[in-house]
Amino acid sequence: MMSFRLSTALALTAAMVTACGNNAPEEVDPVAEEVIAVIPEEIVEVDDTTAALAQPPSAITVEVPEVNARRGRILFTVKGCVICHQVNGVGGTAAPALSASRQPESINPLTFTARMWRGAAAMTQLQNIELGYTIELDDQDFADLAAFAESPEEQALFTIDSVGAEMQDWFLNDRYWITGNWEEYKSRGSRIPTLEAEDQ
Predict the structure, then answer these.
(1) Integer Cα distance of 192 and 197 in angstroms
(2) Nearest CA among 68, 65, 106, 85 for reference residue 172
(3) Under a CB-based contact definition with an 8 Å cutoff, are residues 16 and 25 in contact?
(4) Whole-angstrom Cα distance, residue 120 to residue 123?
(5) 28, 94, 96, 115: which could join 84 in a potential S-S bond, CB 3.0 to 4.6 Å?
(6) How far apart (Å, rounded) are the C-alpha atoms in residues 133 and 123?
(7) Model pLDDT, residue 40
(8) Is there a contact between 92 and 86 (Cβ–Cβ < 8 Å)?
(9) CB 176 within 8 A of CB 94
(10) Which among 110, 103, 104 has a CA at the least distance from the CA of 64?
(11) pTM for the structure as a whole
């Protein structure tokens, strides 16, 4: 893009040429001036999209729920995660264990959510076969489960006694979700036992 107008540049060039050709720089060829006057000026038009792309994006405020590992420990049972995942030696082994070896300085719930997303296809299929529905989790649930998955202190409180006897019968210890053999689990029922059912 030119930093000054084309006609101005030509006028300066003409004046310099004239000055070099004789000893009277104040005398400029009138024909050259007339020719310069009719040369159109260069106009560069920039559309809105191009102009916007030249600017950095606006800052966006990010809100992250406050995490609660204690609530995450409770959700781990009542949402049915314990059926397939094991923590502190308690739970099924049909899916990766979520035991934490050390307490990190900070956690990112999005990292935990991304791990779940990578296994979402197999996980939701297994839930539909085993439970009859797909487990629903909101943003706060993900944040609290992430906190529990990263808290050795809270996981130490998770014992076999934390899980009701009927829920223990639902633990999956074979990787049928890998082999595709679902027949055994199809015959087990279509819903997870509730806490109210365990009290009756």
Answers:
(1) 10
(2) 85
(3) no
(4) 5
(5) 94
(6) 11
(7) 60
(8) yes
(9) yes
(10) 110
(11) 0.63
